[in-house]
Design brief:
The model is unreliable at about 10-50 and about 300-310 (pLDDT under 50). Helix content is about 25%, strand content about 10%. By secondary structure, the chain is α+β, with helices and mostly antiparallel strands. A hairpin with a 5-residue loop joins strand 2 and strand 3. The strands form seven sheets. Strands 2-3-4 form a three-stranded antiparallel sheet, with helices on one face. It has a single domain (about 30-420), classed as Di-copper center containing domain from catechol oxidase (di-copper center containing domain from catechol oxidase, Orthogonal Bundle), CATH 1.10.1280.
């Protein structure tokens, strides 16, 4: 069977196919990618024993970044409003000196942003990078990636919720209209080959060359932060230089899309398994595997010869790190992952799933008070509810992990626009389409020119600026 591709649209439809006429295409599996060398991120990995002994960012050149404004520390809307010299008139009602209203951020799916909204976002991210504040966020995540409370335990969702909120604040200091978009990769995952999504083109997150280096798009010129590999060594060993120092990070962003183990995007089945389960163990999971009464991976048995595992919120997020970064790419290793702006789109989606589960299964009171019991066999003490959420402070004191459960995040700071749906025309964006080729209708992201469109209906419009045809044009 021949593989069908998105052929560039010149002026009009090819002769012989009327508008709206379904053209079923042949289903052929996608191509594999190339692999590279380097460290790989494994969801739940705890790294070296013990937490960073100090909030000084060991293992990175302190001259490579600038601290953001203390405004990003705000824990209520009034603080954020007044930090921008605005006039506070109540929650979600602030007038800036320019006369512009400051409101809650509305987080939308990345591909549903208007062209102007996307351009403003890219501009703000690039300004944050040029000011070296972006690399401050990279350095923070790097420093706490192993042996702390941000991975491998129940505080994963809480720490990253605060982390991306502060990043969003930093962007809004540049442009108050900005909100972090989320990347709903289920609409990429349904494609014959998710690597052919327009996500990976110059208008969005950029394309890569044959070696995996970013060579187009808004972030192609970035020089990434160089860090010292601390996955196997403690900060004390690195600081005292008693171990070999291996540098991570490249001069440019590197991706190895879909090239290695665990290289799958989050699919509907992963979300359904979490959303239909009221157990907090899938939301506040552990990094331990095979330890009795710990929750990270539970074998569900064999279905059709395939062993299925029940994945926690942290586990399914780890799959996406692997899909984008693979072996050797920035997203494939927790220490370098923030160097790729895709990181914040992924974690916007993780936070959305976290909030969806909270709204579905918990009362307002439960959302702020239900959490895992301390268990040193399953996770280190940095994941306990009353532990400081290092390095995050407000008014000179550390906030606690329990603060990450607060309803204030979505009451005062941001809310999510609904995920793309076929109930809205064109799934609410010219960059999306409604896939009618399967039993259940589902929004999909459009396919780049030359991409695999096998098995999709041409009448659904899956190809961006093109038509689904054989390579010879038939």
């Amino acid at each position: 069977m021949s593989r069908l591709r998105n052929l560039l649209l010149i002026n009009e439809q090819p002769h012989g196919f009327g508008a709206g006429a379904p053209v079923p295409t042949s289903g052929v599996s996608g191509e594999g990618g190339e692999a590279g060398g380097g460290s790989a991120a494994v969801a739940g990995g705890s790294g070296a024993a013990g937490t960073p002994p100090t909030d000084m960012l060991i293992g990175v050149d302190m001259n490579d970044f600038e601290d953001p404004s203390t405004i990003v520390e705000c824990q209520n809307f009034e603080c954020f409003c007044r930090g921008l010299r605005g006039t506070y008139r109540g929650v979600n009602y602030c007038t800036l000196p320019s006369g512009q209203f400051l409101r809650k951020a509305i987080r939308k799916e990345y591909r549903t942003l208007t062209d102007d909204e996307r351009a403003r976002l890219h501009n703000a991210v690039n300004r944050l990078k040029s000011s070296k504040v972006y690399d401050h966020f990279h350095a923070l995540h790097y420093h706490y990636s192993y042996g702390s409370g941000i991975h491998g335990g129940p505080a994963f969702a809480l720490w990253h919720r605060e982390f991306i909120k502060r990043y969003e604040f930093a962007l809004r200091l540049i442009d108050p209209t900005i909100a972090i978009p989320y990347w709903d990769m289920t609409i990429d995952q349904i494609l014959p080959d998710p690597k052919d999504s327009i996500m990976w083109t110059a208008d969005f997150m950029g394309s890569v060359d044959s070696n995996g280096y970013l060579n187009s798009g808004p972030f192609a010129s970035w020089v990434t932060l160089e860090v010292t590999n601390k996955a196997n060594y403690s900060d004390k060993q690195i600081q005292e230089r008693t171990v070999p120092i291996q540098k991570l990070g490249k001069k440019r962003i590197m991706r190895k899309l879909g090239s290695d183990f665990g290289n799958t995007l989050i699919a509907d089945i992963n979300i359904t398994r979490i959303m239909t389960n009221s157990s907090i163990y899938l939301i506040f999971g552990d990094g331990q595997v095979g330890v009795e009464n710990c929750s990270s991976l539970n074998w569900l048995g064999s279905e059709g010869g395939t062993l299925w595992i029940e994945k926690t919120l942290e586990n399914i997020h780890g799959m996406v790190h692997q899909f984008v970064g693979g072996m050797g790419g920035d997203m494939g290793e927790f220490q370098t992952s923030v160097g790729d702006p895709v990181f914040f789109l992924l974690h916007g989606f993780v936070d959305l799933l976290f909030e969806m589960w909270r709204q579905l299964h918990q009362s307002r009171y439960e959302r702020e008070n239900t959490y895992r019991e301390p268990n040193s066999r399953c996770h280190i003490s940095e994941h306990y509810l009353d532990t400081n959420m290092r390095p995050f402070m407000f008014q000179g004191a550390y906030i606690k992990n329990k603060d990450g459960l607060s309803n204030n995040y979505t009451d005062q700071f941001y809310e999510y626009e609904s995920r793309p749906s076929c109930n809205v025309k064109n799934c609410s964006s010219k960059y999306l389409f409604c896939d009618n080729s399967k039993n259940q209708r589902h929004c999909g992201v459009k396919i780049k020119v030359g991409g695999n469109c096998s098995g999709l209906l041409d009448s659904d419009g899956p190809c961006y600026n093109g038509w689904c045809r054989n390579l010879d044009g038939t």
